[in-house]
Amino acid sequence: MTTPAALDLGSLQRSDTTTVEIVHPATGDATGMKVVVHGVDSPTYREADRALRNRRLHKLQHSGRASKVTAEDTEADGLELLVRCTASWEGFKENGEPLPFSKENARRVYQEHPWLRRQVDAAVTDAASFFGTSPSSSSASPSTNSA
What we know:
By secondary structure, the protein is an alpha+beta fold. Helix content is 39%, strand content 21%. The protein has a three-stranded antiparallel sheet. The protein has a two-stranded antiparallel sheet with strand order 1-7. The chain starts with 11 loop residues before the first strand and ends in a 14-residue tail after the last strand.
C-alpha cells in the first residue's frame, strides 16, 4: 500500500467566480444563457452570508420569545444570498427582448424560475468549480511546449 503524495497547497488556484452555463430544464440542451457567480469560499459570499445571518440574529434578539424562524424566512435568505452572489449574466431574453442583468432582475428571475435558481445555486456551492491547479514544471502548457 502506497502513501498518496502530499498536496502542495501552493499548486491550488482558486477563483472567486465561475461561469454557469444554464441548460434547458427538460432537455438538458444548452440555452446560451450564462451566469457569473461568486462561490462559497469567496469574500463576496462570506460577507453576504454573515450579513444575512446577523440580520436574522438581530431580529431574533430584538423581537422577544414570540419570534420564530420560518421555512419562508430561510427560503428568502437563500434567495437573497444567491442574488448577492450573482455577479452578471448574458444571453437572457424575456418576451423576445434582451434581459439586462441587475440584482432586481436576478431576484425576480430566480423567484419565477426555480429550475434556473437550482442550477445557479448548485454552482455557487460546488467548491470544485472554483479550483484549478497550477501547471507543473513538466507540463505541456503553451509556455513550455516546444512545438
